[in-house]
Amino acid sequence: MMQSDSVPSDAVGRRIACRDECGTVRFVGKVTSAPEIWLGVEWDNPERGKHNGTHEGVHYFQCSHPTGGSFIRPQKANFGVDFLLALKDRYGQEGNQGIQDCRGNPLRWCQKPIEFLGSRDAEVKQRWFDALLVVSVRECHVSHVIEEDQISNVCPNIVELDLSKNLFASWENVAQITRHLRNLEHLDLSQNKLLLLSNPVSLSDAFANLKALAIQYNGLTWAQVLECAPMWPVLERAHLASNAISVLERPVGVLQNLILLDLSSNLLAGADQLVHIAYLPRLEQLILSNTGLTSLYFEDIQPDGKTAMFPKLTFLAIDKNRISEFSTVNELNKLQNLEQLKFNDNAIVECEKNAKTVRQLIIAKLGGLKVLNRTEISTDERKGAELDYRKKFGKDWLKAGGSRDPANNTPDKEFCAEHPRYQVLLEMYGVPEEAEMEQQKLFALKDQLLVLSIKCPDNPDQKLLEKKLPESMTIQKVRGLLHRLLRVPDAELKLTYVSSKMDMEIDMDNDLKSLSYYSVESGDCILVRW
């Protein structure tokens, strides 16, 4: 891309690239002891800067970070390129250069690159651009469009457009492109620093048919999202991961068509924030991964009831959080339609020491759940989990006031709050016998040994091995054992296993976890590759 040799008249506020860094121009002019024109830049990466806009005691511009600013010469700044130029550069401009896909690779037919040849060059080119439905000009330094009216002539049928990691400075710059794409439904604007509007609804015509929008790593707060929301009248999927969203507020008159909301990797102020989005009428999928949550609760209903919050929600991701109590799982049973849950990498797994046990408890506690951590729950798995749960907490039920005599079956409120589905399980399977409720004795070491086969699928000459390993053995120690057996550097070993109960290969990629963490059982097969 060509770099600027002069400074645009509207340079202040413009986005620029310099080598591998991007920033916003905050100042244009002379600085003390230097007669030339300089650009004062606030960098996206504060480590690229040197000061906060103050140089040799003179304040030239403001930075949000104390070391986020510096001065550069104008000729080092790339102010960006025209959208259509970037499009033609990526997807093929000259006939004999052929056509490229979104990654810059030549498109092929029967292993030969497609080329524009002959007198019908322009006609063939136009047919090609007309056919473009999915377009990516990610990281192409796009900042503006020169001939707006040509967009509808050149590429009128775009449905999905990736404009992420470019140099757009405002929503108006983006709207100059999108208002000419009447079929546009999916738009990615991640990693762009866009100036907010005073009247967002004025640009709603530019996003009239937009159904899916990604604005990730943009530094937005929830208030700013709501401020922009009038631009997106029919938006159904909002991907807002890795922004500055902490405090939520209720959307009024906006975002009412949302089916999916992704707030992952935003540090939420607490679970109490979720009430503000709990009444979005069409919301089916909510992603709250890595948001710092320690709990969830729905206080509008008793433990065995169904909440009015999130009435349409079928999929919830709360993985990679700090949830350590099963009370949160109990609360999830209050959701009317929850069918799929992502819950892995929470503190509760560390507390229980066994991922399989956690899975069984979650299944037993959530009667409507069909998929847990991307794995379907079979009828047999559910029945086994619920029977084990009934036996595991039978003695606690009796101590709390439970009884085989229905007239005297009055477990206290504390037990009912901790095990809200227990009475339902009794109605399904009956009261467990006394022998079933006996506490299991500690297993001897020999009972905890797993009989495992070890196979090297990429090395057919290697004989199938069989070993007895303790379930508490860490993956790191398993690597060491295989290093000695196979004489292969343990750092090069990739370990997976296949369960004897289901035909699925599962990675064992955390050296500090034990075999029991991965729910490895006797009869399973460890696969070793290097």
Write a short abstract of this structure.
With 530 residues, this protein is an alpha/beta fold. It is 21% helix and 19% strand.
Shape category: globular
Tally of extended strands?
A: 26
Summed over residues and divided by their number, the pLDDT gives a mean of 87
Percent helix, as a range, is 10-25%
> What structural class do you assign from the helix and strand content?
alpha/beta
Low-confidence stretches: 1-5, 94-103, 107-120, 439-447
Helix tally? 14
Attribute tags:
five-stranded mixed β-sheet; alpha/beta
Molecular structure report:
The strands form six sheets. Strands 10-12-13-14-15-16-17-18-19-20-21 form an eleven-stranded mixed beta sheet, with no helix packed on it. The protein has 530 residues and is of the alpha/beta class. The longest helix is centred in the last third of the chain and has 14 residues. The N terminus is likely disordered. Helix 8 packs across helix 9. The protein has 14 helices and 26 strands. The radius of gyration is 30 Å and the shape is globular. 21% of the residues lie in helices and 19% in strands.
Topology:
Blueprint: E1 15-18, E2 21-31, E3 34-43, E4 54-55, E5 58-59, E6 69-72, E7 81-82, H1 83-91, E8 108-109, E9 112-113, H2 121-130, E10 134-136, E11 142-144, H3 151-154, E12 160-162, H4 171-178, E13 186-188, E14 212-214, H5 222-228, E15 237-239, E16 260-262, E17 285-287, E18 315-317, H6 327-332, E19 340-342, H7 347-352, H8 355-365, E20 371-372, E21 375-376, H9 379-392, H10 394-399, H11 413-418, H12 422-429, H13 445-448, E22 449-455, E23 465-470, H14 475-486, E24 494-498, E25 505-507, E26 525-529
Parallel strand pairs: 7-11, 10-12, 12-13, 13-14, 14-15, 15-16, 16-17, 17-18, 18-19, 19-20, 22-26
Antiparallel strand pairs: 1-2, 2-3, 3-6, 4-5, 8-9, 20-21, 22-23, 24-25, 24-26
